[in-house]
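Tutorial handout. Part one gives the primary structure; part two gives the three-dimensional structure as tokens.
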Amino acid sequence: MPYVIDGTNLLWAIQESHEECEIAGEVQLCLTLDRYFALVGDAGEIVFDGAGPPDKSIFDAVAHLDVIFSGFSSDADSVIEEKVLANTAPRRLTVVSSDRRLRKAAGERKATALKSELFWNQVLKELSRKKPAEKEPEEKRDGLTEGETKQWLDLFGLED
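Part two.
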């Protein structure tokens, strides 16, 4: 399910949560969301107000998240509304914002609207999960059987 995220609203929600968090700006947020989307196998777009940092090359490292800045002639909410209206499969779309205007726009197109705080909790929960360690093959600890050893010795022309 693709996501369209109100980046400015999400940053504000993170800062208002009063939890210990290393997310101080747009770059850290995007890198964190990129890790999240890679883990869940999904993709997203995040829209920020304004022009963003002068050097946007840091966002090239973000593979699972499209980073968009609204520029000075528009705002993030308007850009997100346009994306919701233009989406060809809005029922599969999730709009992340606590802004009533965007939640209403999502609802009118039957898209899912998710408050920023709830989405951020979902991100933190997924990123904190420990991945189960891959089990080592038994052969690694047990070694080769006598038959396998003989086959390798024969293959290389060595004697027992």
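Part three, for discussion. Residues 32 and 104 are 27 Å apart (CA to CA). The helical segments are 7-16, 26-40, 76-86, 100-108, 116-128, 138-142, 146-155.
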